[in-house]
Amino acid sequence: MKTRTKKWLLVVATFLCVLVGLGGTWLWYLNHYVHRHCIKATGMAFRLYAEDHSGQLPFSTNGFGNALLLLTKGGYLSGTNDVAEICGPDDDGHIFKEALQNNSVVPEDQCSRVYIQGLSEANDPAICVLFDRNSCRGGDHFRSPWGRRVRDLCLLDGSMLIIRDEDWPEFSRKQAELLIAAGFSRTNALQYYPVAK
């Protein structure tokens, strides 16, 4: 075989190895990170819960972490003891799993998603009822190792939005005002959206 042919075969083989390696890495990444914490499924669970509870969304005097567990305990999520859908990206759900096992209180400050309890279907459907506490690149639905940092969130009507970090302060101000209009005190509204102060 000629030296020139060998060089071309080596170039093509190298290109194919790189292509297969990148494709395999991308598939692994998708399998491990994308859609693991589906906020759309949680939005549907809120709707189902409200249908069974006269329009009221989950509420617990132990805080919003325990209120979210009502979705799991009631079978409104994909499975009993499945907490992935009430957790944000990069959260393995160990806090919720421990609370289910021990019947303990879930510390709100350790929840990776923030749930605004005390709402019902009668409130403004544009109110955000659940959102990722921290942003990540691409959010849960379009997770990638690059791109803009965003947060996934669920509105009261069950729909999902994605908010970029640079838009979060303005979004927070509007949401705080919607909560105040819904009867929340300014102090309580700003606890959910401290950036709106």
Question: What keywords describe this structure?
Answer:
6 helices; 2 domains; alpha+beta; 197 residues; 5-stranded antiparallel β-sheet; elongated
Provide a concise account of the structure shown.
The chain has 197 residues and is of the alpha+beta class.
Q: Helical content, roughly?
A: 40-55%
Q: What is the domain total for the residues?
A: 2
Multimerization state: single chain
> What's the rounded overall pLDDT mean?
84
For the termini, the CA-CA separation is 74 Å
Low-pLDDT stretches: 25-35
Strand/helix succession:
HHHHEEEEEHH
Strand % is 5-15%
Shape: elongated
* Total strand segments: 5
Largest sheet: 5 strands, antiparallel
- Name the structural class: alpha+beta
Rg calculated over all Cα atoms: 21 Å
Tell me what the structure shows.
The protein has 197 residues and is an alpha+beta fold. The chain has 2 domains: 1-33; 35-196, no CATH class. The protein has 6 helices and 5 strands, in the order ααααβββββαα. Strands 1, 2, 3, 4 and 5 form a 5-stranded antiparallel sheet that branches. It is elongated and about 80 Å long. The N and C termini lie far apart (74 Å).
